[in-house]
Specification:
Order of helices and strands: EHHEHHE
Strand order of the largest sheet: 1-2-3
Number of helices: 4
Structural class: mainly alpha
Largest sheet: 3 strands, parallel
Distance between the termini: 34 Å
Strand content: 5-15%
Length: 79
């Protein structure tokens, strides 16, 4: 099933930090249903910022693998 772009929710880096760092956080409670419904979206820049925050490569690899299936917004260069 293809989700229309207007139904996707772009989740910024600061929300992902709370999602990964705190059990039962507001971020976790909010993002989980979006993930379940395949409505969570990121950009390449947000993914890079998330991965930069992990101290160990194994953690970053796990997160990258976990987020691989998310909807991805591609940013266009504006002139």
């Amino acid at each position: 099933m293809t989700i229309p772009p207007s139904d996707l929710v772009l989740i910024d880096t600061c929300i992902w930090v709370g999602f990964f760092n705190r059990n039962q956080s507001a971020e976790l409670i909010t993002v989980d249903p979006l993930l379940d419904d395949d409505r969570a979206a990121i950009t390449g820049m947000i993914l890079a910022e998330i991965l930069q925050g992990f101290r160990r490569d194994e953690q970053a690899d796990w997160v990258a693998s976990s987020l691989k299936g998310l909807q991805r917004f591609r940013l266009k260069k504006m002139m």
